[in-house]
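REQUEST ID: PR-0412
SUBMITTED BY: lab tech R.K.
PRIORITY: routine
TASK: structure prediction, single protein chain
INPUT:
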Amino acid sequence: MAEPLANVARVDGLGMIAIRADLARSGDAIAEAAGLAIPLTTRIVTDGDRALGWMSPDELLLVLPGADLASALTALRDALTGEHALVVDLSDARAVFDVTGPHAGDVIAKLSPANLDAMPGDGLRRSRAAQVAVAFWRIDGGFRVIGFRSTADYLGLVLRNAAIPGSGLAPR
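STATUS: complete
OUTPUT:
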């Protein structure tokens, strides 16, 4: 059997927090509480094991180690007290996969209409993988893909199938 184009691995143990707020008004407070700068539109800011991604004009996603989740929730809620804002733990509602290896981009390209060549190094893309909604960004050696937990089995399957040489589009 041929070697896969990329390694597809489920990532467990992450915390994920959705932050909905007026970013122009509350951005400084969010940045301080999250420990990361507010990302530009369609971008993600990373520092070590934390990432803060732009999801929409009034929504950010903080991804961090699960052990840091409770303190981050408290810090964000305290920072946004009195603001029209929402801070929600999405950790159990999402599934995360890392697609790594020399042809990781080819695996993503088989499943998503996103133009990966036009995506900057700090880009965050909301798109689809086959028939499910996902968000993805570059990590060292590949891509991190986040989807709904309810579609985790399917998402893992289509990612692994796309990594099989000869399945669908050829590597670039």
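NOTES: The CA atoms of residues 16 and 63 lie 5 Å apart.
REVIEWED BY: pending
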